[in-house]
Amino acid sequence: MDKHNISVGLDIGTTKIVAMIGRKNEYGKVEILGVGKSKSMGVHRGVVNNITQTIQSIQQAVQEAEAAASEKIEEVTVGIAGQHIRSLQHSDYVTRANSELVIDEDDIDRLINQVHKLVMLPGEEIIHVLPQEFKIDGQGEIKEPVGMYGGRLEANFHVVVGQVSSIRNIGRCVKSSGLQLEGITLEPLASANAVLSQEEKEAGVALIDIGGGTTDLAVFKDGIIRHTAVIPFGGNVITEDIKEGCSIIEKQAELLKMKFGSAWPGENKDNEIVSIPGLRGREPKEITLKNLSKIIHARVVEIIEQVYVEIKNYGHEEQKKKLIAGIVLTGGGSQLKHLKQLVEYITGMDTRIGYPNEHLAGDSDEDIASPLYATAVGLVMDGLKRQDRKKAEEVVEDVIDADEDLTLETEEDVLQAPIKERRSFLDKLTERVKDFLDNAE
User: Fold this and answer.
1) Domain boundaries, position 247
2) Could you read off the pLDDT of 41-54 as tens digits, one per residue?
């Protein structure tokens, strides 16, 4: 099979590590060839804290995916999340030397590179710079400035910041597992690509991805990402509370949560009881489902309220910034019973559970279209997009090489000249992480 048409997403989570192999079918949909999943050891709240264990878990997931797809995995697209991710708004401008020429990609690159020079806290680095909208000579609300005339180009940016060491550690784990880094993506963005439709992004929507160790938020409006945040709580704190509150072991707490847990205590009658076998011949424990729901409810409310604070920080309460499509819940934590109703009750926003079947081929396995795999599907899509870009760039370079003596005389020629795709900062970041790892050997 042609290596170029397949892409591998590696989702390094707090509870599980997923390797997913996919390719585009003839209808442009993503066909999943194989999935490998392993228990994540050595990751805490989205951040690697034990390199050796993480490498073992990655290798296990990769081998499983290779066996399922009978493909060899060489390159992967990795997601980064974790409690160290934060975002800020920033506006900046450049004055152009010659306002007689139209604005081109280089001007935008110059502006973006200027934002990268922002001074960050020690150990932090800018991961994503996402232009929101541009202004040319004071005229606002311009989505695409390329090809327009103007002397002063300014833009509002959404800047995502993270810790360099955490990103390098992930790079290190991938490399030590015998894999190449093809790309790095912010996990909330990957999940958003997998579960949101274009209409929702236009209307305004908040994607909440509830993972094991972290809850990721991505807010879209007018088709542009407006806000991202990572909250350092997820499904694990709920399990932890059940364990403490009911004095049982973690494995039992997790099973209880998944089988009988509900985020809405009113649902359970007082006399519904679950009996849990005691350890090593001890008496079994009896737990009322009402109490279980109360414990879960208290924690879930806490997580949702924190997310809602972030949605308000974005400005959801202003008329112009209202998120008409409401909230989409995804990630493993979104499978909790009655969570949708609770989120609607707390936020007053329409809510649905997001399944990553928006871009999957019709005959995909039921399991893959589960919210658990939203991030992995998004990473596979991201890898496929990157490959398309590379192909497009190669074509452009071939055209330019063939026309070395190409002189663009008229404006018509300028408009028809192939446009070189602007490289996202993440591609540059990936290269930097690769260089760093190569030099650190």
Assistant:
1) 235-298
2) 999 988 999 999 99
